């Protein structure tokens, strides 16, 4: 692509087509974003990553994937009897 990435440096990119088999179609380098005016980011891909990361933090407190996606936890009276 013509961008120099020195050894030990990170290549930053954005996922635009999560389903694509060809890596060149799947991601766009951070440096290329300004040159692509009609860029559409794969929001579903990043939503799943956010839910997974949030679950890793909240799972020890009893949160489920569906509660995290909904943004609220169902609380019953039994939760206060412990």
Largest sheet: number of strands, sense, barrel closure: 2 strands, antiparallel
Mean pLDDT score: 81
- Helix/strand order, N-terminal first: EHEHH
- Helix proportion: 25-40%
Which structural traits does this protein have?
single chain, 82 residues, mainly alpha, 2 domains, two-stranded antiparallel sheet, 2 strands, 7% strand
Structure report:
The protein has 82 residues and is mainly alpha-helical. The chain has two domains: 41 residues, no CATH class; 38 residues, no CATH class. 32% of the residues lie in helices and 7% in strands. It contains three helices and two strands; from the N terminus they run E-H-E-H-H. The protein has a two-stranded antiparallel sheet with strand order 1-2. 0% of the residues are buried. The model has no long low-confidence stretch (mean pLDDT 81).
Summarize the structure in short.
The protein is mainly alpha-helical and 82 residues long. The chain has three helices and two strands, in the order βαβαα.
How are the elements arranged and paired?
Blueprint (H helix, E strand, L loop, with lengths): L12 E3 L7 H4 E3 L13 H16 L6 H6 L12
Antiparallel strand pairs: 1-2
């Amino acid at each position: 692509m013509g961008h120099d990435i020195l050894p030990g440096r990170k290549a930053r990119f954005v996922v635009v087509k999560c389903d694509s088999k060809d890596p060149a179609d799947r991601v766009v380098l951070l440096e290329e974003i300004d040159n692509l005016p009609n860029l559409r980011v794969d929001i579903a891909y990043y939503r799943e990553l956010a839910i997974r990361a949030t679950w890793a933090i909240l799972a020890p407190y009893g949160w489920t994937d569906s509660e995290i996606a909904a943004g609220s936890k169902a609380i019953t009276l039994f939760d206060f009897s412990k």
